[in-house]
Design goal:
Elements: H1 2-28, H2 33-54, H3 56-62, H4 66-97, H5 99-107, H6 112-153, H7 165-192, H8 195-199, H9 214-243, H10 247-280, H11 288-303, H12 305-330, H13 332-339, E1 344-346, H14 349-361, E2 366-372, E3 374-379, E4 399-406, E5 419-423, E6 440-444, E7 450-458, H15 466-469, E8 474-477, H16 479-487, E9 501-507, H17 513-519, E10 528-529, H18 530-573, H19 575-583, H20 588-621, H21 630-660
Helix pairs in contact: 1-6, 2-4, 2-6, 2-7, 2-18, 4-7, 4-18, 6-7, 6-18, 9-10, 9-20, 10-11, 10-12, 11-20, 12-18, 12-20, 12-21, 18-21, 20-21
Length: 663
Amino acid sequence: MKYWIRSVSWAVSSMKLNNLVIKNFLRNLKNYGLYVFALVFSVALFFSLLTLTLDDTAMTEITGSTPMTALFSIGSVVVVIIIILFVCFANMIFIKRRHKELALFQLVGMNRSKIFRILLLENFFIYFGSLIGGVILGFFISRLLLMILLKIMRVDMMVEMNFSPLALFITAGVFVFIFFILMIQNYVFLKRTSLIKMLKLNKTSENTGQPIGKMTIIFGAAGILMIAAGYYMSTEMFDRAMENGLLLPIYMVSILFLTIAGTYITFKCSVAFVLNMIRRSKNGHVNVNDVLSVTSVMFKMRSNSFLLTVIAVITAISITAMSLSYISYYSTDKMLDSTTPYEYTVDSSENLDYYEELLNENGIEINRIEKSFMHYSVVGTDENNNLQNSEESGVNGNELGIVIASDQEFEGFDVAKNETKVTGTLAILDMYLSFKEGDPVTFTNGDGFERTVEVTETTSEGILPSNLSFGLPALIVDDSVYQELSEKQPAENQEYDMPSELYAFNIAGGDTEEVLDIMDKEDNPPFVSKQMDYNEMVQMSGMMAFIVGFLGFAFLLTSGCILYFKQIDECEEEKGSYTVLRRLGFSQGEILRGLGLKMIISFGIPLIIGLLHSLFAVKSGWFIFGIEMWTPTLIVMGVYTVLYSIFALMSLAYYKKVVKNSI
């Protein structure tokens, strides 16, 4: 009988607890809106990327190699790490926002195990509901992502709707693991937080009482100087590394330390100092805008300095990686125009005759290209030679070997007698060999003869394939100068067989895959195809741009949601202040103008610092990835800023709703 009574009592208690969980969940659902959306979208991103990774047909078609397939797996792991960090942080924000509710449960006699059960059931509904919704959304997103990837890589392939049970199993396992992490986090919070501390939790979250003293000013200036020093070192890093390769890792570690530590100190001290100076410049005549924006942000940034540093660094990493990958993709055409200027290149006149006959038999006409050139020594100077004169650097004394050609041999050039035009210049070559307009170039035969001309033009378009010019620029000179240099050319060095003839052709009607299929037979002579190089480069750079952009979007979603959750948390804490301001006669519009300025400062400062970090990071090494920096970098920064601003507008909309209901 006693056992039956206890069972009934337990059942009634469980029913009451379940009803309480449902009521709490429905009441807080509006606050969890963006959180649930972000969680669903995170599941969808992970599931869709995992589906692509496990799609053998798609991976074989778009990657063709195990290392490239591994990039998708690495991307999936990074997405999981991002999701774990995001949900753990968001979970703590929502627990702290409900501190009074959790404390009230304890005051009415509910023990912590029951409170933990409430949180467990609520999180169960949220996470596993999000898991189901995310998998459904991810199934459709995976096809969309594959279509985008194929479009970027310019691969013609039929996209099919395939559901992967293995991807579902792995996704479910990962999110069950994340669920257990969150439950451990909730358990530790309830166990370590006393009732008194829980009641006063919101009062200890901000250090609003600490004044702006002399040490704040000193550290603030030091933080800005540290960032400036890191920026300066980034501009000098590769130049110093060319002098001594051991300096490169030292510079990289120093730059990371200076910028990250400087960013933390900037949020902790510099921003507060600057905003305090703005406030003090008004000589006490502050308005409601100043109170709601400058004064509020000044203290809150100090207490949230670590979080804002993480967001700024994540923003910088995301924009830098996306910019560099897009620079590589954006520069594909120009890179090929520089390194592979002709549609097909062969190594002899006989092979050229062979392919001309083969293609003519198939009704395809070609334009033959047969050119001659020569390699000549150029006197190295401080202006054009960044290599040390040593045997290890490959420089013979103070001379550099480079290709020169006649303006009569290559059409489209008309060079004056004492001038030269430089072709095939790539930004990365400036580390080794640079030619600028107005620079003198002195040719020498190593036996007392010298001839100097002046650079009048430089272009990235090449006249020779990189395998004939050894990746270096080619100089176009007047034919009379070319003949003079040819007569004075030293006897050939028998140790090295330097190429001096170009054999290439273009397809009269334009190159096609059909032409490539005709030529690409095992028994045919070797050739270099611009189309094959293009396909390889665009697929490689396109895949990198896709994966990096995918992860960058995940970082953006994470950092934007975290800032949004922080803002709605602050909004709930400041709700009473808006009521007071409304009763004092301030209109809703006046209050919202101040809050709008607060959003600009709160979201804008981390974004601006992240953009500056990424700009200097990109400038320090962009030339390794492509030819043009500004256009792709500004496009990435612009898109990132627009998407990032959406979270600021959402935060302002939440503030607007709270202010509207404050009276």
